[in-house]
């Protein structure tokens, strides 16, 4: 394409619709239309001729609003499909292989395809991230391609425009004027806070140009926001780990090097409906129990500076804290939240050493299920020797008792019982429900007395260094929205011909009502000719024509 | 005059090409980096082959201290395990046999139990007659430092103290022999 030479002598870049200098229509379409298209001031949105190298081709692809909108639509559809089957985080499987099998087994071939295409972990799938990235590219390039010419055009705009530009504006007037009309109009427009520039026989009054930058400011906010989201994937910026902590346990905090947490106590408090809580009585009667507080009392330890992981004497207490829902423990940029709990996990079991026949007790013993001892000697001289301990007994394999997990969910003990009367000892295998005597009938047994339990706190460890960036992005986004929505860019062009005729044109990017209100004041004060809203006239005419057609 | 305009036009064109290439390159690099990070996020992020193996100090069943850095110059076969983990139990006897074979060649085996009681670990060691030191990671701090997820996981540390290889899952006796050969000092 060639550069466009306007009648006024100005050379415009290819693709320009309205001459940058005088405003004459340059394309046939513009010349034939009643009103000019003022979007982007009639500038070339992007230079279509620059389409030779591969870089330019890529650039022009992303510059297209159609492409941008298509990407958004694809993202929306993908996100919608991602909600049809559960995401992998909510699937009862933990390893890659079992997750894959879960989808295939539960949902058949649909599940297999779903998993294969990465819908099971949508936000982490390559193509989804790539699409979001393409949207970012589109935002940057489309904005640049539109902002730069618009900025230049508004910066360099001239006061005097060609009459053909003016009479194609929506607000237009032509008629006789007085000698001081221009001066009075200038005075009034200045009073209305317009920036007024004059040149020879004309003036240009302008207000709120910055409103035109709203969409671009908005896009900058979006880009910053996307940048923040991108940083979440960079190691160290974003941590979201869970930690199950049992009362009495000290554990290294995952992803938080050098810190340990000990649980002193977990407490679940319910509303009682008493002691000043009578007001809740009705509600409690209706729904039953209502939790008042979930709280884990912890001690935070920090590893001594030079100390190595594992060295038990290297921890220094930082302090004691209470972690409640919505009141996390915060330290060093990390936050630990109360998220979940399990009540009454087995902690210790109490037995009585009894003679089966006489039911006489030779004493009691408590086996700590977390840290059992090898032997328990009773005052009566009876002795319990622990031969094997299976915290989560799951059956025998080749005669060997097995444990499924390290947690004392179903403790099993292989014990040898000795008394002064039976010094050679008797062997029995004890689980919660029953006792097996593998080496023949015994005279003594351990009779279950009671259990001690402990609670487990489900904590979440979080760190999010990207929040300030996301906040900044959001703020800039909102500033851009306000800038574009609540402010308008209003302009008036007024010219007085040699014979005293006044030409008046007005334009705004939105809120024509406000523009007319401003103009009414100026018309009154400076006795300008009455203006018409040409768009209204066109609409009326079209309506009349339609009605006429309907009648005939 | 015409020459000058042409030159100007050419400069502008070059500038534009450079600008567009740079902007596109930056954006594409950012996307590539994000995808790379997302792809590696699920793997062990803290530890990679070639990294310095994090030092630690743990106590074995006899009460002896074992510091990883004390074994520099030897290959260390670091095995994370638990008594409830069946593949762990299965590979123990093979590890013990290979330890006998390689211990004189400067290969040390450290079996790190994950936070179980002394009694359980001791009975297990007695049952299998383990001759290498068995240490207990009471607070899971070494497990956390090494970012151990599934058990068993074996980390091979070479004589320079760097991670030679990370193996998750059960190993055959042949595997074990091969791995020990890998970290044997020259």
UniProtKB/TrEMBL annotation, chain A:
The chain crosses the membrane at residues 67-85, 126-148, 216-238, 467-487. Residues 65-421, 441-520 form the ResB-like domain. It is a multi-pass membrane protein. It is found in: Membrane. Pfam families: ResB (PF05140). It comes from the Bacteria. Keywords: Cytochrome c-type biogenesis, Membrane, Transmembrane, Transmembrane helix. InterPro entries: Cyt_c_bgen_Ccs1/CcsB/ResB, ResB-like_domain. This is Cytochrome c biogenesis protein ResB.
From TrEMBL, chain B:
Keywords: Cytochrome c-type biogenesis, Disulfide bond, Membrane, Redox-active center, Signal-anchor, Transmembrane, Transmembrane helix. It is found in: Cell envelope. It holds the Pfam family AhpC-TSA. PROSITE patterns: THIOREDOXIN_2. SUPFAM superfamilies: Thioredoxin-like. Residues 47-185 form the Thioredoxin domain. The chain crosses the membrane at residues 17-36. This is Thiol-disulfide oxidoreductase ResA.
